[in-house]
Write a structure and sequence with these properties.
Largest sheet: 3 strands, mixed
Order of helices and strands: HEEHHHEHEE
Strand order of the largest sheet: 1-4-5
Structural class: alpha+beta
Oligomer: single chain
Helix content: 25-40%
Radius of gyration: 15 Å
Strand content: 15-25%
Number of strands: 5
Shape: globular
Distance between the termini: 40 Å
Length: about 130
């Protein structure tokens, strides 16, 4: 099977996954002890939601698209949406992060993040002490 995440980036499952991960990292960052986050199935660092692949399926419209621009969402979405809005300062959501790119946004002090990919490009590791 040939899976290309660019067709599905920002869909409802992607939003759920990133909401959960963002919340877990935020909660773990409250602790004084260091922790590590290892992502074994990371994809690309950035996805163009206005690009050919994403617009062919339009799946992001039922994920990020449903949250974008709303101000009546639960507090648990705040960190996730703050990060997305920072990278999309205009009124529309044009790009979304892949997990390697989220690592930099999630990093807290005493945290090490590492991702690996199954593509020919190497994974990315980052550490903030």
């Amino acid at each position: 099977m040939n899976y290309r995440h660019a067709f599905h980036a920002g869909n409802h499952a992607d939003v759920f996954k990133h909401l959960v991960l963002t919340r877990l990292i935020a909660l773990m960052s409250r602790k004084e002890q260091p922790f590590a986050y290892l992502d074994t199935h990371a994809g690309l660092g950035l996805y163009d939601l206005q690009g050919d692949q994403a617009t062919r399926t339009g799946e992001w419209l039922e994920g990020i698209g449903r949250l974008w621009g709303r101000d009546d969402l639960p507090e648990v979405t705040a960190d996730y949406l703050r990060i997305l809005r920072k990278m999309n300062p205009t009124a529309s959501c044009a790009t979304t992060r892949g997990r390697p790119s989220w690592h930099g946004a999630w990093r807290a002090s005493r945290t090490a993040c590492c991702s690996t990919r199954s593509t020919p490009k190497t994974g990315a590791c980052s550490r903030k002490t």
